[in-house]
From TrEMBL, chains A, B:
Alphabetical list of PROSITE patterns matching this protein: 2FE2S_FER_2
SUPFAM superfamilies in alphabetical order: 2Fe-2S ferredoxin-like (SSF54292), Actin-like ATPase domain (SSF53067)
Protein name: Ferredoxin
Domain 2Fe-2S ferredoxin-type: 2-94
GO molecular function: iron-sulfur cluster binding
CDD domains cross-referenced by the UniProt entry: fer2
InterPro entries: 2Fe-2S_ferredoxin-like_sf, 2Fe-2S_ferredoxin-type, ATPase_NBD, Beta-grasp_dom_sf, Corrinoid_activation_enz, Raco-like_middle, Raco-like_middle_sf, RACo_C
Pfam families documented for this protein: Fer2, RACo_C_ter, RACo_linker, Raco_middle
Phylogenetic classification of the source organism: Archaea, Methanobacteriati, Methanobacteriota, Stenosarchaea group, Methanomicrobia
UniProt superkingdom: Archaea
Alphabetized PANTHER family for the sequence: IRON-SULFUR CLUSTER PROTEIN (PTHR42895:SF2), IRON-SULFUR CLUSTER-BINDING PROTEIN-RELATED (PTHR42895)
Transmembrane segments: none
């Protein structure tokens, strides 16, 4: 049975020779115009015959076409039948509606429009009368399939060298893979026969700790495999600063190698999951922070960790996989997200893409909190960003019983203001062994509501309750008694822990307020508040506002992006137009250097109160705390 | 004494601090507008201060400039003085006339506009307040010198990797080398300090036998060194066909290597001549025949020697020197001339450039004769070309005493029709050892004028003269008696030699006539007839017409191009705009395949008469032969 391929989308369908091409198109999922119902009367179902044998009575339907259309192979698809495998071009006007494929990528809608395309072409062999070059005939056939024109395509030497034998050995039937790059098109491979169904790309989130790769079929846009790997650079230092220092001592080579290895490991897992040969992956899109992407490309990141903190390169980069060292198709391309500054990297730009905030007139605030925080404020017209050190407290560092979000970590806490009875939830329900970031925010908020701590974070040791006691160095509050825990000792939060937490949250809040001041907006103008990264997934939004980690906005405006970096990379992989857009975003963002910002210390100091010195910025929190106070006092 | 550099042309001059910048500019050879005579009154001598220290009273001359101009550093050059090394931009309007430098390249005029530029920039170091990336600051400085804008320049990974240390180690003073490629700009090197005076490129004629390299200073356009080398591929076969057969047996690798080696050898000689480091050469432009350039790039040429004779690639190619294997700057670029067909190669396209025929409305005929002939007919609106085998006779092959144009070869011959006395000139004046192409044409013409041979080339053995005799196989004419020669035997031309010569000239003439018919023109329409290659340098133009090697045109319209391939390559090296033009030329030429041309055999047969069966095509020759006949008969 003949296989009919419909262009330009390369939809294939196997049909019998008695099926009309209109029927075939419908089986392939195309909605075809046919006012007359497919009886050769209305002339709306026009298509163009590109290759292969078909039956069609050109004379009978002459009147429907101009000479030019006839020359281009115009047919009425309801009256044409495939005799053999053939390629048929469907012009847009023949479709009931434009068949742009909208993809839902982790919550964001985008159009399927990858930068890599495959063209299966049946090249006309040369004759004495048409002795044009192999390359020209190949490119001519590609442009006949609605591909780029011959002059637009750059063909590297390596490909030129295989073209003559490939054409002849394949009986003049080859598949060319063409990448659309910022400055034109580039042929990245030529293969025998029809391989157009195998078109794969990977989106990679290159994190400091973990590397995640999503493998997608670029013909359908769907994820077909996911793989993740530790960032092997950890052997050169846990945090990114120590890795840069490692590179200063021992050179960049090892760090680059490890970054490349980690990405290759994640991609290999994803490819194995999908049962795809790694060599069939044509493209990788990578989002990572500025230092990580510098190290991946062996560009010296040293100057980013000293004043005045400048990256070598900010803009997006496109390089061949071979040059970067990635184990995909050697001439495949690698796209690396642009950065705004050394502290606002490609990962944050990808977060912005994932949020959609750069396309909306609504003002959004995007916050990524870890050891460092990054904050972006803006909409489709303007954007500001800043970054700074949050300190490790919100990730459990510098807190006596603080820990990362691992099993046994207290992640949710509620306290009865009357009895100070506690309810804890731990990760995986295990006996508590410590407390992680989201739990700490809860403790802070609940202690404040219970009037155990005041707005400066001091524990009221005049309250007589077994949970409130003087510890070795500081007053402390007991979260779990030793027989309840998995570590055989009481788990407490000390006044010093609380001070460290407040310092962390104060700097994040100050950053938000400085950007809001810069833009001249108030918290009421913020229509969406996005949490990027893992932190937002578990945090109690109410409590985050109560302690003044973030400005007060209605809770339903707070959205968890989750892994926004991965999501943004996936969107750019699927829709090449987003790549130009990410550069625009990166250029458009006004970076506010907090170290050079005179009001920062002042805003920071104001933020060291819970939630802030100025309660008019937190009116709902003020009311709620007042109610709590009354209730506690009434007790 | 301060050195002042005038942009955008990078003209440098050393002057005293009491010389005004106008004086400095005049010393640097710039013609500056100064209606008031340089006394600060007319405001015509405006320049822009870009870097370094100068003295200029901005307030005093405030009225002459807009705020925007003042911000850009506008000064009146007659009232400004250098304090230290500085860079001054001279806008075009300040020059009395546009300072486009016209170069005379081997007889053709072209504009100095190389594709490679160097930009010496003093980059602003970053501060906390301006923490833009290294790359951006570098590119910004370049665009400030009238260079391409930041977004236009592609910077390969290898360069990105050295930028941060290079900027800091040089005190932020670097020279960036930027190539303009077909699809944008590419940074190919960054160096410490000011190296802008060292900007070199090479033009290469890649011949089957010889490779010639011209090294040029691209700041001035002048040739500073020439080198030539044998094409080392000769070890794989003397003629190009045997080399292609060698590649079929043993692969292309060796042939590529030898082509690269030969070019490197010629470039090295040229660089040594000029005292230039080979690594300072930024660009090479290469013109060669289609098979040679395919072999240079390791692209299989096999299919060019079998029907239907198709090259793999026709269009011009730009590749990095590293990928091609040339020993210049590794990121330097290599431009290879486009071909029209496998028989009309980049060497012929370069000939066309050298002739200027593609820019003129006058119709020209260009002929390159060797073992093969290539013929191009046309003007700035249309062009046709064809090629074919001339046979070796015109280069001395298949002729009993034929030889190449080496010392001792008879190169000029005249015969007294009355006495058949001979006057021969040999190359280097040595005793004759054989006869080369130009000598053979002379013999043919002179024997015809003396009625020793008839128009079919038969020797009239009825003439009783010692020089006319029956040889071993054929009748023959004695050119030199054995005691006059350097080989101890009589040097003769046989009737068979004459037959072979006529076959060679007949195919060349047929090609010319077919193109003329194709274009619908007559010999009177031909305004220029160019001989490319060595053949034209020595040939007697009158005799070439008399024997019917070329159509009859007035002799003063015949021009020897000499090494047109080298000339064309030099023009494209100096003026990058010609590169787009050569692709246009190559695309524009209609290639006429003589093997597929039904009238070829007919035209060829007509051409086997001297000069042609139809004497109305050679009216002057007819008259002159008639006069000769009368004179001989009157004797």
């Amino acid at each position: 049975m003949p296989i009919v391929t419909f262009l330009p989308g390369f939809r294939k369908v196997e049909v019998s020779t008695s099926d009309s091409l209109m029927t075939a198109a419908q089986k392939a999922g195309l909605a075809i115009n046919a006012v007359c119902g497919g009886v050769g009367k209305c002339g709306k179902c026009v298509m163009f015959h590109k290759s292969g044998r078909i039956r069609f009575d050109t004379e009978r339907f002459r009147e429907f076409f101009s000479q030019e259309e006839r020359d281009a192979g115009a047919i009425l698809s309801c009256e044409a039948y495939p005799e053999d495998d053939c390629q048929i071009m469907v012009p847009e006007r023949t479709l009931i509606q434009s068949q742009q494929i909208l993809m839902n990528v982790m919550g964001q809608e985008t159009v399927l429009n990858p930068s890599i395309r495959k063209y299966y072409v049946q090249v006309q062999p040369p004759t004495l009368a048409t002795p044009t070059s192999d390359l020209y005939r190949l490119l001519d056939a590609i442009s006949g399939l609605d591909g780029p024109t011959s002059k637009q395509v750059y063909v590297p030497l390596e490909i030129l060298r295989v073209i003559p034998s490939m054409l002849r050995d394949s009986g003049w039937k080859v598949t060319a893979t063409i990448a659309r790059l910022p400055a034109g098109y580039r042929m990245i491979e030529i293969e025998k026969g029809d391989t157009s169904s195998q078109l794969y790309g990977a989106a990679v989130d290159l994190g400091t700790t973990t590397v995640v790769a999503f493998l997608r079929d670029l013909n359908t846009g769907q994820v077909i495999g996911v793989g993740s790997a530790y960032n092997k650079q950890i052997s050169c230092g846990e945090d990114i600063l120590s890795r840069v220092n490692y590179s200063k001592r021992k050179g960049l080579g090892r760090l680059q190698e490890l970054a490349v290895d980690s990405i290759n490991a994640a991609i290999t897992l994803a490819a194995n999951n999908a049962g795809v040969d790694r060599d069939d992956i044509c493209e990788v899109v990578i989002a990572g922070n500025t230092i990580m992407t510098h190290m991946l490309l062996a560009i010296d990141p040293s100057y980013m960790i000293e004043e005045p903190y400048v990256p070598v390169v900010r803009r997006s980069l496109t390089a061949s996989a071979g040059r970067v060292g990635l184990s995909i198709k050697p001439e495949g391309s690698v796209f690396i997200f642009p950065a705004v500054s050394d502290f606002i990297g490609g990962d944050i730009v990808a977060d912005i893409v994932a949020s959609g905030m750069a396309e909306s007139p609504d003002i959004s605030l995007l916050i990524d909190i870890g050891t460092n925080f990054e904050v972006v404020l803006g909409n489709n017209e303007w954007m500001f960003a800043c970054a700074g050190a949050a300190g490790p407290a919100l990730e459990g560092g510098e807190v006596l019983f603080g820990m990362r979000a691992n099993p046994g970590a207290i992640e949710k806490v509620s306290i009865d203001p009357a009895t100070l009875d506690l309810r804890c939830e731990t990760i995986n329900g295990k006996k508590p062994v410590g407390i992680c970031g989201s739990g700490l925010i809860d403790v802070l908020a609940e202690l404040l509501r219970s009037c155990v701590i005041d707005r400066t974070g001091r524990i009221n040791t005049t309250i007589s309750h077994p949970r409130i006691r003087q510890g070795e160095y500081f007053p402390e509050f007991v979260l779990a008694w030793k027989d309840e825990t998995g570590i055989g000792k009481d788990i407490v939060v000390t006044e010093n822990d609380i001070k460290n937490l407040i310092m962390s949250k104060a700097s994040t809040l100050a950053a938000c307020i400085i950007l809001m001041n810069q833009a001249g907006i108030t918290r009421e103008d913020i229509k969406n508040l996005y949490f990027a990264g893992g932190f937002g997934n578990y945090i109690n939004k109410d409590n985050a506002i109560t302690v003044g980690l973030i400005p007060e906005v209605p809770v339903d405006r707070i959205i968890n992006l989750g892994n926004g970096a991965a999501e943004g990379a996936n969107i750019a992989l699927i829709n090449r137009k987003m790549r130009k857009f990410v550069d625009d975003i990166a250029y458009r963002i006004g970076y506010v250097e907090l170290n050079a910002e005179p009001t920062f210390m002042d805003e920071y100091t104001k933020g060291t109160f819970l939630p802030h010195t100025d309660l008019t910025l937190f009116p709902m929190v003020e009311k709620s705390l007042e109610l709590c106070r009354l209730r506690v006092e009434a007790k």
